[in-house]
Amino acid sequence: MKKAVALILIIGTLFPLLHSCKKYEDGPLISFRGKEKRLTGVWDLTESSSDSGAVPDSLVCNTLTFGHQVTGGTFSCTGTGGLGDFAQGRWYWSDTKEFVTTAVASTLLYIGMLHISNQWRIKRLKMHELWLEAQSGSTTYLFKYEKREE
Q1: Distance, CA of 13 to CA of 143 (rounded, Å)
Q2: What's the CA gap between 94 and 73, in Å, rounded?
Q3: pLDDT digit string, tens, across residues 83-133
Q4: In a 3-state reduction of DSSP, which class is residue 146?
Q5: What does the pLDDT read at residue 19?
Q6: What is the pLDDT, as a whole number, of residue 18?
Q7: Is the peptide bond before 28 cis (omega within 30 degrees of 0)?
Q8: pTM for the whole thing?
Q9: Class of residue 85 by CB neighbours under 10 A (exposed 0-12, middle 13-18, buried 19+)
Q10: Which residue has the higher pLDDT, 62 or 114?
Q11: Which of 18, 27, 114, 120 yields a CA-CA distance of 20 to 30 A from 144?
């Protein structure tokens, strides 16, 4: 009888814990590293898409950099390679940490995906994989990134 009660208590404790671990729609199911640790670093674009077809180069950030919140939460975006195709500012979590919001010094510095939105839903956040989604009008954009090895 004691074993059955212990088993029920263990299952009853683990089920809500595992259920709450999956924060992002496309994963991961569970991670032992914090969200900020997974997000900070340099990310290189691997794929971009939208539900209305191909994404123009002018709406692409080839490289994203997220700095630690402790050091001020710096953010930068490098576009497709033209002069002045670089923006930097700060990034912030939403209350639920499902969104990341960016703020640049001037709207004149909006390049790449910053033209679409300054708030991105995190669809997937693994140590080496980041998927960001944003809505602009009736179009949904998805950008997939891979973390650069340090």
Answers
A1: 36
A2: 13
A3: 568 888 999 998 888 999 998 876 666 778 888 888 999 999 999 999 999
A4: strand
A5: 42
A6: 46
A7: yes
A8: 0.77
A9: middle
A10: 62
A11: 18
Distance between CA 138 and CA 116 in Å, rounded? 12
Q: What CA–CA distance (Å, rounded) separates 82 from 99?
A: 29
74: Cβ contacts below 8 Å, ≥ 6 apart: 65, 66, 67, 88, 89, 90, 91
The distance of Cα 6 from the centroid of its chain, to the nearest Å, equals 39
Q: Where are the beta strands (DSSP E) in 94-138?
A: 99-104, 119-125, 129-136
Token digits of residue 41:
């670093």
Q: How far apart are CA 42 and CA 114, in angstroms?
A: 17
Q: What are phi and psi of 26, to 5 degrees?
A: -105, 15
- Chain mean position to CA 138: 21
Instruction: Give the CA count within 13 Å in the CB-facing half-sphere of 28.
Output: 13
Q: How far is CA 68 from the centre of its chain?
A: 14
CA 57, 110, 25: angle at the middle one, nearest 5?
A: 70
Q: In 3D, which of 83, 38, 44 has the Cα closest to residue 60?
A: 44
